[in-house]
Every structure is written in C-alpha cells, then in structure tokens.
Amino acid sequence: MTTHPQPWIVVVGAGLGGLTLAAVLHRHGVPVVVLDRDDGPHARVQGGMLDLHEESGQAALRAAGLEEAFRAQVLPGGEAMRVLDPAGCVLHAEEDDGDGDRPEIQRETLRDLLLAALPRGTVRWAAAVRTVRALGDGRHEVVLGAGETLVADLLVGADGAWSRVRALLSDAEPAYSGVAFAATRLREVDVRHPVPAAVVGAGLMFALGDHRGFIAHREPGATLEVYAALRVDDPAEMARLAAGGGLLARFDGWAPALRSLITEADEPFVPRAIHALPVGHAWEHRPGVTLLGDAAHVMSPFAGEGANLAMQDAADLAAALLAHGVGTAAGRERAIADHEAAMVPRAAAAAAESAANLDLAFGPDGGHALRDVMASHHG
Ligand SMILES: Cc1cc2nc3c(=O)[nH]c(=O)nc-3n(C[C@H](O)[C@H](O)[C@H](O)COP(=O)(O)OP(=O)(O)OC[C@H]3O[C@@H](n4cnc5c(N)ncnc54)[C@H](O)[C@@H]3O)c2cc1C
C-alpha cells in the first residue's frame, strides 16, 4: 500500500506555476505531489526567454529561496528591446541599462532551477490526468491515464491553457485570438547568420505592420528564437503556411533583413495559435479545488505577464496556505478564498492589457502603435 502525506495536496502541472507552488510549500516543510503528463522535464522544447518582473516572478523566486540561483542564470544584455516597422526602420529602442529591473532568463533554465529545489519524487512525470471528480466532501478523485486513482484533500489545477481541472469550476474555454505564430530558431547566429543577428540585436525585437510581424529574441548560446505572426481567421491557415513554405510570401515588400528571419531558419516552422480565456474569467468558489496560472487566465503573450502571473499566483497561494494552515479543511478554504480574491482582478487587468496590445500590434500600423505603448510605459 502506498502512503502519502496528510493532507494530500495534489498539483496538476509541472509548469512554472505548479513548480513554484511546490517549491515554496516544500521550503516550509509542506509536501505536495505534482503530476505532469510529459515524460520528463526535457520531453518538450521549453523554448523562449522570459523577463521576470520584480513584483511577481522575482518575488515568487524570493519566496522559494531561489533568488540567488536565478541571478546567476540571467542573460546579460537581455533586457534590450527594439520596435521596427516593415521597412526595418527602428521606431523605438531601449538598451539594457544593467539595472536588472526585468532580468531575462531562459524558460528551461528557470524550470530546472525550480525542479532542483524539490525533493526527488515530488514531480511525477508521465502522469497525465484523464479525469477529475468532486467526491462531495471537499476531496477530489484524480484518475491518471494509466488508470491509477488519487484522492486529493486539496487539488490545484496548474495544468495550463487546456486545463482538465478547470472543468470542476467553470465552463469557460480559451478562444482563438485571431493571431497565429510560427516559431523557429536560428543557431550560431554571430557566425552563421550575421544579418538576422544584427536586426534582432541583444534582446527582444518586434517588427510589426499590416496586421503581421516578427517577434524575435536573442537567447544564450547565440541563438535566435523567432516567431513569424499573422492575423488569420483560421489558425489552420498558419499551419498550412508553416508546413508548405508559404510564409515568406506573406512578407513580400518587407526589409530583406527581416525576411532573412524566415529564409535563414535552421528549424522547420512550428505553428502555434494564440488563445485566451475571457478577460476577468472567474468562478464560484468550491471547496478543495482551485486554479492558478494559465489554467485560470491564459492570455495572449502581449503583456509579457503570463509566466510572471503564474508564479505570483503560486507564491500567493502558498503564502495563504501557510498563513491559514494547510492541516485543516477550514484553513485550506480560507487560503483558496484569499488566493482567488487576489488572483482574479490581478489577472483581469493583465488580460485586458494583453488583449489591447494584441489589437494594436496586429492592426494596420502595429510598429508605431507598439512604439507609442512603449513610450508611454517608459516616459
Ligand atoms: C509564444 C509565447 C510567448 C510568451 N512569452 C512570455 C513572456 O515573455 N513573459 C511571460 O511572463 N509569459 C510569457 N508567455 C506566457 C507563459 O508562457 C505562460 O503564461 C506560462 O508558461 C504559464 O505557466 P503555467 O504553469 O500556468 O502553465 P504551463 O507552463 O502551460 O504548464 C502546464 C503544465 O501542465 C501540464 N499538463 C497539462 N495538462 C495536463 C494533464 N491533463 N495532466 C498532467 N499534466 C498536464 C503540461 O505538461 C505543463 O507542463 C508566453 C506564452 C507564449 C505562448
């Protein structure tokens, strides 16, 4: 017979949100199990740079005792940012001033850092949750793909945009935003791809106009992560373009340096439709279960907040559980109520901002519109 801790806290999803929750609770001696459907931490390319904000992502890492380890992994120069128009003219540029206000880290590195803080066995890989069911007494039955059943005293859905746990609380489903990305990478760019390397610069580059554009990020190891983005009614169209080589034609007339982000790609383009839950997604509180991160509020990446919010949600939920006491159902209920009351309005504000930014960025003159947003943020 398997034994497990009391109470049995089951977190579904070993993304940044689920792992942050586990890391903060573990630091305070509260064990959890984290279930993830992936076969292991590196089963999928995690890709991408994230800038962690002081009040959210960084605060969560402090709560997990990982701030120093994080600082050691930050990409120097990564805070640089520029906005271009389709002709390649720079409309707005910010250098990395080295104040470390929004340090950039590779998503995979960040996830590894959180995993390393957890005792072996906390995360169970290849543990896809198939169904979840309320037992009526505040506990939930979680059935895994392999048929195994767990009964959770507290069930946390940190299982991302297409969350299974969410169905216990809400009927909402993410809707297609009208914008689809196709992702690729360019490697050893200083030697092999000097033109794309120069147009992207040291950090993040947006080139936008005519309802389309490029978003590209320089990563450690002289790699560029590139997203070509289009406003398309049907995301299947992006999948066809990405597979069939039709992407370049959508950028006819764009500066050759920008087009080189497609022609010099080292990897096949992978399509990714951008989805979002309704702004302000909320639910009636139910005992024994809650959500955090994308499961609660997936939004387009145009506020740069999704990962930061997931980590902040997790750190706040952990703090509330520690404050009210995980040992009793009443303590856990108060913690869930506090967490949801803080998370819902915070996420709604970011989701509204990201939806507005998406509309501006993929409007007729996205470059100038984004420049104005940046200029208003940075005075
Ligand atoms: C292109 C792009 C760029 C982005 N850029 C930024 C950025 O610059 N800054 C920023 O802050 N945010 C950014 N985001 C948003 C950010 O990636 C997400 O908000 C963040 O990863 C959410 O974390 P999470 O832990 O809630 O969910 P996820 O990272 O999605 O993790 C969910 C986990 O749950 C697991 N899972 C799912 N279903 C099941 C199941 N049934 N059973 C078991 N496990 C399951 C998955 O395998 C996964 O590991 C970006 C997003 C995109 C798409």
From TrEMBL:
InterPro entries: FAD-bd (IPR002938), FAD/NAD-bd_sf (IPR036188), TetX_monooxygenase (IPR043683). Its cofactor is FAD. Its EC number is 1.14.13.-. It catalyses: a tetracycline + NADPH + O2 + H(+) = an 11a-hydroxytetracycline + NADP(+) + H2O. The chain crosses the membrane at residues 6-25. It is found in: Cytoplasm. Keywords: Cytoplasm, FAD, Flavoprotein, Membrane, Monooxygenase, NADP, Nucleotide-binding, Oxidoreductase, Transmembrane, Transmembrane helix. FAD binds at residues 51, 107, 294. Residues 10-171, 288-349 form the FAD-binding domain. NADPH binds at residue 44. PANTHER family: FAD DEPENDENT OXIDOREDUCTASE DOMAIN-CONTAINING PROTEIN, MONOOXYGENASE ASQM-RELATED. An FAD-requiring monooxygenase active on some tetracycline antibiotic derivatives, which leads to their inactivation. Hydroxylates carbon 11a of tetracycline and some analogs. Belongs to the aromatic-ring hydroxylase family. TetX subfamily. Monomer. This is Flavin-dependent monooxygenase.
